[in-house]
Amino acid sequence: MTPDSATLPTPTTKDYSAAMRLWHWANWLLVSAQLITILFQRVIVKAKTAVPEYQELMSREGISLSEKQARSLTRVISERIWDWHVYIGLALAGLWLLRLLLELRGPSPRRFGARLTAALRRYRLAPPARGENAGRNLFSLLTYLLFYIMLAVIALTGLGLTYHHDFEWLDRIEHDLEEIHNATMYGIIAFFVVHLVGVVWAELTSEKGLVSRMISGSQERE
Ligand code: HEM
Ligand code: HEM
Questions:
Q1: Which of 3, 19, 80, 164 could make an S-S bridge to 170, C-beta 3.0–4.6 Å?
Q2: CA of 192 to the centre of ligand 1 (A)
Q3: Distance CA 134, CA 148 (A)
Q4: For this UniProt entry, which segments traverse the membrane (predicted)?
């Protein structure tokens, strides 16, 4: 309807390979599943807070449970959720390695490093009319970079927490690993929100077809 200046062609390649698209949606699934395990652990099941309920239930059966005994029973449930967290976590750590491989083996113009360098250069050299576009593109790539760093941190600390019993030096830093792992989760949640808002916004304004290109890889434009 209007000659839309915002739809000036974006000079980056926005078409993702099949491997990269598969990676993206598998990553989305696993990160969401990890967040759901935490939702269950901390909000829905909250096993620790069930100690008095276990004690009351048992006392109705004439069994007296000490707090310690009740706590070990509640732990059965939370351990099951943690087991799922670790399985999904191991898959996520594998996916992170796969992303590294795609970066190292992929065609050079599609590599993340090359796109980021090109976006930086474009941002510095863009004429004022294109500056906003270049800035937005650079910002989105920087959020992806941050996410990849956070994914590495959460995977490495998660692996540390999984295997800390096997290595004394990991055992000694277990508490720090927990703190870092936990804090990184909030960063990932923040990325999720910003990413979703950004992608939907771009889809509705300047980048029609962006989401379907991440699904089907087609280059269709309206
Ligand atoms: C998006 C990804 C992930 C999120 C949001 C996440 C979140 C969390 C949170 C909030 C905790 C509790 C930490 C605390 O005690 O304060 C935790 C614990 C843990 N996470 Fe993750 N994590 C993720 C990925 C991973 C990965 C990749 C692994 C590696 C296998 C992993 C393994 C573990 C282990 C072993 C624990 C300790 C469980 C326990 O206390 O028994 N996590 N995770
Ligand atoms: C846990 C959730 C998600 C994570 C961690 C995530 C992560 C990422 C990452 C890292 C990239 C950049 C890939 C690269 O260029 O190297 C990306 C791109 C993209 N994501 Fe997601 N994503 C998530 C959910 C979603 C959802 C729900 C949608 C659709 C509504 C979506 C749509 C897209 C699109 C369209 C792109 C390409 C954007 C562009 O070319 O700048 N993502 N995502």
A1: 164
A2: 17
A3: 21
A4: 25-44, 84-102, 138-163, 183-204
Average pLDDT taken over every residue of the chain: 89
User: Torsions phi, psi of 173, nearest 5?
Assistant: -105, 15
Task: Tell me the pLDDT tens digit for each residue of 175-186.
Answer: 999 999 999 999
Q: Encode burial over 15-49: b for 16+ CB neighbours within 10 A, e otherwise.
A: ebeeebbebeeebeebbebbeebeebbeeebebee
pLDDT band at 207 (very low <50, low <70, confident <90, very high): confident
Helix (H) or strand (E) holding 92: helix 67-105
Ligand nearest to the CA of 37: 1
Closest CA to 157 of 79, 101, 93, 103: 93
Q: Which ligand is nearest to the CA of 28?
A: 2
Chain CA centroid to CA 106, Å: 22
What pLDDT was estimated at residue 2? 35
CA of 192, nearest ligand number: 2
Domain ranges of the chain: 16-95, 107-222
- Amino acid identity of residue 185, one-letter, is M
